[in-house]
């Protein structure tokens, strides 16, 4: 494992890469959308020149080769190679444009660049494909985060089961709607201290600096139960359609949000 290396799988416009670089880490950033890669190459020109950042303009898939990428014309966050995810975006009122992109695999990235200290995964509909790619290496990132499933509790349990099979035994649940309120710790627990304001869409703090308590797998699954209930009632494809009832549920604390699951390999006591 390379203690100074982070994989940013789902670069987007570089919200997370900017933070990782500022904390002194080297970054390998993976992004399927060529337009976003062009923007990031301009934004991080000096970091690329100094060999602190490598941008890989490819999708993550189970097999390498050419893939159809559904570039969302209304929200650049929602680009995907998953047809079901693309259909979901259409149901939510957005438009897709189909383009052809090259795909790589997580095992290939690990062979090419080494095993990172932290692996951030946020690729719409394909997080588990990237995570399961860690099965091919005996050495694993110390920390991993994924955007957890919001619609299927069975899928959520499968995510945690996969983490455990990979050797991860401590978890944090991080509310992504609150990332803009996060502030880096001083003194830092990861990398060097930086006074950083998180951008919209950023994943936020990571590793030991991620907010919340470290939980066991069983505690994590139980903590997700009320989160799933709130999302089912008031989320993107909500069961409750009546606006008055939705406002009442929000007043009662039924606020739909999306969450990242952070995992680590370690045996420290739960804090």
Structural features, described:
With 271 residues, the chain is an alpha/beta fold. It has one domain (2-264): 3-Layer(aba) Sandwich (Rossmann fold), CATH 3.40.50. It contains 9 helices and 10 strands. The strands form 2 sheets. The chain has a 7-stranded mixed sheet with strand order 3-2-1-7-8-10-9, with helices on both faces. The protein has a 3-stranded mixed sheet with strand order 4-6-5. Helix 7 packs antiparallel against helix 8 (217-234). The chain is globular. The mean pLDDT is 90.
Q: Which keywords apply here?
A:
271 residues; 32% helix; 22% strand; Rossmann fold; alpha/beta
Write a brief caption for the model.
By secondary structure, the protein is an alpha/beta fold.
């Amino acid at each position: 494992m390379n203690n100074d290396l982070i994989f940013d799988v789902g670069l987007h416009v570089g919200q997370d890469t900017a933070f990782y670089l500022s904390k002194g880490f080297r970054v390998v950033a993976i992004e399927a959308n060529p337009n976003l890669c062009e923007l990031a190459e301009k934004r991080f020109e000096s970091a690329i020149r100094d060999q602190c950042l490598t941008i890989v303009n490819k999708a993550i898939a189970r097999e390498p080769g050419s893939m159809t990428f559904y570039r969302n014309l209304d929200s650049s966050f929602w680009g995907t190679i998953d047809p079901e995810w693309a259909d979901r975006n259409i149901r939510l009122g957005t438009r897709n444009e189909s383009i052809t992109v090259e795909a790589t695999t997580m095992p290939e990235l690990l062979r090419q660049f080494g095993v990172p200290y932290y692996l951030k995964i946020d690729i719409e509909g394909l997080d588990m494909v990237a995570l399961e790619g860690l099965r091919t290496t005996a050495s694993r990132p110390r920390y991993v985060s994924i955007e957890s499933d919001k619609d299927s509790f069975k899928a959520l349990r499968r995510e945690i089961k996969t983490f455990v099979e990979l050797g991860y035994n401590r978890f944090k649940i991080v509310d992504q709607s609150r990332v803009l309120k996060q502030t880096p710790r001083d003194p830092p627990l990861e990398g060097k201290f930086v006074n950083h304001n998180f951008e919209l869409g950023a994943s936020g703090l990571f590793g030991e600096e991620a907010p919340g308590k470290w939980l066991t797998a069983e505690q994590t699954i139980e903590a997700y139960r009320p989160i799933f209930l709130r999302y089912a009632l008031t989320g993107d494809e909500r069961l409750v359609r009546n606006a008055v009832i939705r406002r009442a549920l929000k007043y009662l604390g039924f606020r739909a949000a999306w969450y990242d699951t952070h995992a680590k390999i370690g045996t420290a006591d739960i804090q």
